[in-house]
Every structure is written in C-alpha cells, then in structure tokens.
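User: Fold this, then the next.

Assistant: Folding the first:
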Amino acid sequence: MAEHILLVENLSDWKADYPSFSVVAAKDYLTLPVYSKKKHLHIVNLCRSYRYLSLGYYCSLLAEARGHRSIPTVRTIQDLSRKAIYSLDTEDLDSKLHKILTRRQENGDSTTFTLTLFFGQCEVGELKELAYQLFGVFRAPILRVEFKLQGSWRIATLKPLSLHTLKKDQMEAFFTALKDHLSRPWRKPRNRSHYPYDLAVLYNPQEQLPPSDPQALKKLIRVGKRYGVNVELIQRQDYARLAEYDALFIRETTQITHYTYRFAKKAESEGMVVIDDPDSILRCTNKIYLKELLEGNQLPIPKTVILRKDNWEEVEQQIAYPIVIKVPDGSFSRGVFKVENKVELLQVTKQLFKDSDLLLAQEFVYTTFDWRIGVLNKEVLFACRYFMSRKHWQILNHNAPGRPKHGGYETLKIADVPAKVIQVGLRAATLIGDGLYGVDLKETARGVKVIEVNDNPNIDSGVEDQVLKDELYQRLIEVFVARLERQRGGKG
C-alpha cells in the first residue's frame, strides 16, 4: 500500500486547524535518509515555489530519482513554465472553451475569466469537464487558469499556485479535492501517437562545443539516405516546421531552460520519435537527480554530499580537500570548481548559491583519463578514453587562452574495454531510459566510479566513430527506423 506525504516549505504553512495528513518539511524530505530509502511513496508537493532549482523543484526532481510518484512532476513544472510549451497541449481544448465561456459571458465588456483548480476540480459546473482535462495534461495540486477573449476565448496563462496564497473561502474546496485525490488510483497523463519517416537533426552551427561536428552530421545524412531515411539539418528558427518531420535527433547541447527542451517536448507531443526525449533531458541535465538515482540503485559514485545554504560548512567533515563543487545543471565541464580550502569553498559556494538552492560537493578523484561508454537503445555503441587536458585536472580546460582546450582521446573496440567498465556504464544508462547516452566513469583503486550520465554524448568524426566508422551511424538510423515501424504497426 502506497504511503502519501504532503511536502511544505515551512511546517507553519500547514495550520494547526487544518485536517490531519502526513505533512513533511521539504528540506527533511531532501536530506533525511528515512525518506530516500522508502519505497512506494506518493508525494504531494505543496512548496511555495516550483521555480527552477528551488526547493520545490528539487522535491519533485528527487522524488522521481527515488522512484516516488509526485504531483507535480518535474516535467509538469517545466511544461507550465513557458507558454510555448503548454499551448501545444491546450489547442484541442480551445473550441470547447469558447462555447462554454461565450454562454457564460454576461456582457460584451468581459474579456477575461479566471478559474482556480484543485487537483482538477472546480466549482463552476460547466467547466468541470474542462478542468478535469487540464489536470490530465498538467497535474498540479493548485492551478490558476486565466482565459482571455481574443477573437475567441482561449487559455492565456496557466500558473501553479502555492498553499499559502489561498484565501480562507478556498480552503474547504482544496481539502475536499485533496482528500478525493488521495483516495484515487494514481494515473499518468495520456501520450499521443503519430507516424514517422523524415529525420530532423537539430543543431546550431554557431555552437562552440557541439555534440557532433559538421563531418559527423554529413556522415549521418549520407548513411540515412542509404537506408531510406531523409536526414535534414534544422535550426532554432525551424520550430514551427517541426511537425513536418517524422522524428527528431537533437545534436545541440541540451538544457531545461533552453529551446532544445521545447523542441523535444513538441516533438513528443506530435507523436514523433525523439532522441533526446524530454524525460532523458530532465534526468541527465541535473547532477543532483543523478546522484540520487545512482546511489539509490547501488551504482558506485565518488563520495558526494548535497549542499544547502545552511549546511555548506559540514562538507569538510565528510570530504577531504580538495573538494569538487558542481552546479546541478552544468555541461562540458562548465560549472565545476575545485576548491583547496575553506576560504575557496566559501567564495565558490556563495557565488553559486545565488542561482541554485542546492549544490553538489564531491570528493576529488584524479585519473589520467575518463572512460566514456556510449549507449544506444540499452546497448553499448562505443567506448572511448578521454585524457585530461595538458596541465589541467579536467578533460576540457575552459580557462585556457583562446578556445577551450581538449585532452587527447582513444577509441577502443568493446571487447578491449574492462568488463566492469562496460557493466557499470550500461547499468547507469539503462536507469535513464532507452535513448542515446554517454556515461562518464573513472577507474580507481577502489573500483569503477560513475561520474555522470550525458543525454547527448559527443559523436564526432574520427573520434567516437573511429572503430565502427559508418556502422555507428547505421545503428543510429536503425533505431529510429525500428521505432517508426513499431508506431506503424510493423515488425521493427
């Protein structure tokens, strides 16, 4: 039987005269082992803010890493953060909405209408079906919907609200909806389906450190044609044309607060086959999520501590200097700092806490190279050694004069890679999904350690394809084709 808990930012937000539920402070859920070890938890996240990298954001993010079910999910939080995303999901509701609100319109001067939903319930009888449909797409505990008359009635904004903003006359409706929600079986939002055969590759020709160089993209186009797939390069300005394609392959550095995520979300909403899929982007772009996920599944990682503004000094008691401090969503060695003493620790964390409520502190593990195990569709695709940049402790030195400086590389046949490296890398990638991942690992005297999992690993001409050559691109195309054929009911 699943256990339900309600998360609040401050325990004082749940007043003494409120109904009796299991209420937990957000920081306790994030840091106490009793919650990270529990299984079958259902989380109702009622934090004051779901802002990116806030406590509320992390509660939903780590709930997913721990295998807990949460409302809202971190994906819902992201989807509600931009009109460009959620407008995709409300188009089929607009015609019903126009008919209902036109009937309710008392005079021609009324051009706005606001509705507050509690777990998909509202007190306006005519809009109950619409409220339920909105909750099916955007599962948030409290959601304010603003409608505007712009030629016809449309949903203008969707905004999640926090518990402490509710008025007294709204509390009874909230508690009724909460009790009803907790008594129902947990259901996931429905997914749409579509059919594919033209492959769009999103890239940015101006990106300084792209996941694939121009030669690799040319090889992909050439191999695609050989197997009956039209591969076409697209850029940011092609967003409106995305639905013209059958599948999407993102070859640009992904971030949650970036149009790459919007492309992935739109592609999925259109029923397209997409790599990187939105869930993989969400999971891989946050190192704190990965820490919880890997530890929770007994995968070896360096000693790691989650830092808050009120506990940053405690890291010295758990990790010896030098200590590596990481921002949660850095990429290509950016947002990673090595501190040698307490003064540097204070300087670095003080600056980084301006943008994130949580940081990651990790023991410094030096090796002359990192392993990169490329995994596609839960099978190993390539294996490389990336060597540290000259006179630097990372494979990429962003402080070098001019352009960032890479270390060397060596691509090996899978059979020549230590079995433990392959085993751990494959397990780590499989925890994320069935897309394309690059798992970074270190071989140490204490065994193989997972450093991170990347959702859009580098595939550069003459590097990652050095062993397989065209076969690497062939395997990529074959995965897209197999998924497309499955969607069409074929045998893929």
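Now the next one, as you asked:
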Amino acid sequence: MQRARAEQRGRDLVIHLDRPLNQDHLETVSGGQGEFYVDFEVADPRKASVQQRRLFFALLHDIETYFVVPSEFLKSMFYTQYEFYTAGKSISLSDATESSVSDANTLLDLVIDFMFEWRVPFKKGYELLPKEEQYFIYQCCRHRVCIVCGEHADIHHVDVVGRTNRNKIDHSQRHVMALCRAHHSEIESIGSAKFAAKYHVPVTGIKLKIEDLQKLGIRGNYGGD
C-alpha cells in the first residue's frame, strides 16, 4: 500500500508520495498512453468515535448470531485482517485508542465486505454511519442485494431514464441503487419520499464506476470502454 500526503494549491491538489511510483506498472495501467486515473480518500485524523465502535460491535453481533461463534474470536479475526490489509498497522476501538476515524472506517469496510461475501443479514437495530451507508449501498449494487430485504436485486436508476435506449446512456453518470423486483415496483409506484419514510433507507443512490457496471452486465455508452 502506497501512502501519500496532499496539499491544496487553489483548485489543484498536489500529491507527495512516500516513494517513487513503479514506472512499469504505470505504463501497464495507462496502456502506454501516459494518462491514468487515481482514486483517493482524504484521511480523517480525528480519534475513532464512539458511534464507530458501537457500529463495529453491532455488526459483530449480527455475524455472531448467524454463525454462532464468539464475538471475541470475530473481533480478533477482523483486527488481524486489518493488520494484514494495512501492512502491519494495528488498530483499537477502546476509549484510549490512538486509531483515527479513517482507520475505523477501513475496519468497518472489512466487516461489511465479509457480511456481503457470506450473506450475513444486516439487522435493523442500528443505523449505518454516513460513510458506511454509502459503502453499504455500493456493496448492495455490486452483489445485487436489495437494500430493503436482502433478496436478489435489479439495479434501479434513481435519476429518471425514461424511454431512452439504455445502451446509449453513460450509466456511470447516473445514481443507482439495488432493489428487488417487488421493492423496485413499489418505489416507482409510491415515489422516493414515501418509500424512504416507510423503510428508513436512503434513496439518493450512488454512482458506480464503469468497471462495476460492466461486471453487473449493464450495457451503455462508456466512450468506447
């Protein structure tokens, strides 16, 4: 994992890397064109929050109930997975923790990934934090899991598509969410506001990357990609 720090200069964001980039790798990902795109997340250095700790243990309880395994075992497993994922960095969510909000977000993402991978149901007894909420919506789309009931889902366009030929649309510029056939029909029948109030779920959707859309089999006009 390569780390970097950034500084803002007007509308530009200047990235300072901790070591030189692998030039051979750059040529591979850019196709020899010298141009490539980078995903980045601005780190939040504040101390990991109580809400993050509560959410972590609530998710562990869901897994514990589903698999009937001790929560301490699960906690140790995910802490170890975090260390492996971050190349040896440790984490703690105790009151005296030195781990940051961003560290806790990474840990929570690993737990959410696990739950989707193993089809562990998400309970309704807690609220996902804003960052995890977006990640949850993304994983629902990626795994075609209905955000309401967990059944197999279609990809619902939040932005109205109308009668346009969908193969000619750049779906990466549209907000989407995952809904099963029944809930897909319902949101179109009663509208987004009533649907959100009834099921207490976000209905703003997210934008998916082109590679995610292609993996989901959603054809569109992606500029020749």
